[in-house]
Write a structure and sequence with these properties.
By secondary structure, this protein is α+β, with helices and mostly antiparallel strands. It is 36% helix and 27% strand. Strands 1, 2, 3, 4, 5, 6 and 11 form a seven-stranded mixed beta sheet that branches. The chain has a four-stranded antiparallel beta sheet with strand order 8-9-7-10. The radius of gyration is 19 Å and the shape is globular. It binds L-homoserine (HSE).
Length: 309
């Protein structure tokens, strides 16, 4: 029997205001752990555990981990199969890249088991293929940062080109996850199919300054540049008390507070040199407490990409 390989696959936040399907950021916490070992042939999932794992299919044709791993095996012409165990740390339907971490972790696991024959960009594409099958759209804004770490942006999908930037050291992040499930497929169905020139101009201005702020480490400008005139407004009705929670975070000192990915997670940025983020997490929790809803929070920062544990 071959040895087990354990992969750490981090949560990610995507869109970040104006960068719908383009921007993504790896988070230090939470994360999934994907374990695998070579078997003679085929892919089998023998264990799925962790929050929300009861909703995750063990059928390898329907599971993001195995679909992504199979794509790596196919591309490399591997002559073996993989047994997989999945430990979810990221609840599905959370908006912090749960399916992305599964897909990226599966692709990265197969990449390691096949002797790292693909480039990391190809590994990202294998993971994005799984996102396409399970989430209703080919988007790599979660799987790219999950594999590459830090901040990533997809310059183009055809041909595929991804650029990564190291985010500011001073960037603190609060993640708040209200107790509501928002499947990405449904969250994409409420989006408009056309945008006005006014909104396009607004997005290009904010997206450009967001990238400049990432490059220069300007967390204040980063906060001012998280603006979304199109996607969050269309989705806000899917997340109860979203606007109140964002307002509470801003009053508690956050530089910005916005819908993470397709929701329901709410992401707030703060400066680590100014505060520890607890007041922001508490302020959002209070909004949900007052509305008899549970809300889980993490106070974290950005992080590295998939790696062996
Ligand atoms: N960019 C994607 C979306 C991310 O917003 O639908 C899904 O988590």
């Amino acid at each position: 029997m071959s040895e087990w390989v354990k992969i750490h696959a981090p949560a990610t936040t995507s869109n970040l205001g104006a960068g719908f399907d383009i921007f993504g950021l790896a988070l230090d916490e939470p994360y999934d752990t994907i374990e695998g070992r070579k078997i003679e042939s085929g892919i089998v999932i023998t264990e799925v555990s962790g929050p929300g794992s009861e909703s995750i299919p063990k059928d390898p044709t329907k599971n993001s981990v195995s679909i992504a791993a199979a794509e790596v095996l196919r591309r490399t012409g591997a002559d073996f199969g993989i047994e997989i165990k999945i430990k979810k740390g990221i609840r599905p339907c959370s908006g912090i890249g749960s399916s992305g971490a599964s897909a990226a972790g599966g692709a990265y696991l197969a990449h390691v088991l096949t002797g790292e024959k693909l480039s990391l960009t190809e590994v990202v594409l294998c993971a994005a293929h799984a996102e396409d099958v399970t989430s209703g759209g080919f988007h790599a804004d979660n799987v790219a940062p999950c594999i590459l770490g830090g901040f990533t942006m997809i310059r183009s999908y055809e041909p595929f080109e991804v650029i990564s930037i190291k985010p500011p050291e001073d960037l603190g992040i609060v993640i708040a996850m209200p107790d509501v499930l928002v499947p990405t497929k449904e969250s994409r169905m409420v989006l408009p199919q056309t945008v006005s020139v006014k909104d396009l101009v607004f997005h290009v201005g904010n997206a450009s300054c967001f990238v400049h702020a990432m490059e220069t480490g300007d967390v204040d400008l980063l906060g001012r540049s998280v603006k979304d005139a199109v996607f969050e407004p269309a989705r806000s009705r899917l997340v109860p008390h979203l606007k109140d929670a964002e307002k509470a975070a801003l009053s508690a000192g956050a530089k910005t507070s916005f819908l993470g990915g397709s929701g329901p997670c709410i992401i707030s940025f703060f400066k680590k040199s100014e505060m520890d983020g607890k007041t922001i997490a508490d302020a959002i929790k209070k909004v949900y407490d007052e509305n008899d809803m549970l809300c889980t929070t993490w106070i974290t920062t950005w992080g590295a990409g998939c790696r062996r544990e």
